[in-house]
Amino acid sequence: MSIFIKPEVKKVSPSVIRRFGTSFGSHQKLWSRSETKLWTINFFFGTCVLYASRVSLPICAVAMAKEYGWTITDSGTILSCFFWGYAATQVVAGNIADHYSGERVLPFTTLVWSALTLFTPQLFDFAYWTRSPLFILITIRVLTGIGQGFHLPSMASIVSRHLTASDKGRVFGICLAGSHFGSIVAGGIGSLLIDLFGWRSLFPFCMISFIWYLFFERLTDSVLSGRRARVVFDSGGNAMQDESLIESDHFIKKKPSKGVIVATAVPWSKLFRHPFLLGRFLSTILWSKCLFYNVQLVALLFLG
After folding, report:
1. Which positions, given as ranges, span the membrane (predicted)?
2. pLDDT score at 31
């Protein structure tokens, strides 16, 4: 009598077999060509705004030091503590973006650093009304760094999940070019505004980041509501068309029947008690033939 139970099991589509053993959430929706252009422009503009707001405080540092009476040590501490939050966030930002989706993480963090940058003059004034202004200033800068630290990891997560391997590098490179463009624009226009209207006139331009936030939300909603081709990625990041993905999802979400569980379970206890398996297994292992002699030799050496 066979030791295996072979009940009738419903035939599973090849797509399930191909995906079995990999992440069930690996199938993603690829952007179309027009959507790729829109998202590239979106991330380029967002990165531009991000770096423009990042260099705003260093541009104003000299004027702010005169107004608040900062020493060189104070200026260096306030400017550098931004990267305490920024660098620490990079360690976990990518995992958070992959786990909770970059489309959800990026808008929230954008609102955080945009609000902190927009109200920087008011927050700094409030800090000097307290007994420990330096602590408040450092906290504001660290929180700003934490908020901005999610931008690039979230952007990389979104791009990697919606583009093929041949398009990821090109699109991500264009998006990163916005960092240099934003720094150049903020440096040129910011210096002019400070000379004409003072350093406080620079921060209201952070309202542009809220415009980008609205554009990002609108673009995300339009993509999610549209009908996209569903594909499966292989180990190399290349897209493979999957015709029966809907059936596969139904199979995965459906609770497996008792027959499927029995068919896929391995009866280890019966296998290792079966005489044929033991004889075949031991005969194929060369060192097992001299196992008892080795045990006897060890016993003679140590036990006498």
Report:
1. 38-65, 77-96, 108-129, 135-159, 171-193, 199-216, 277-303
2. 85
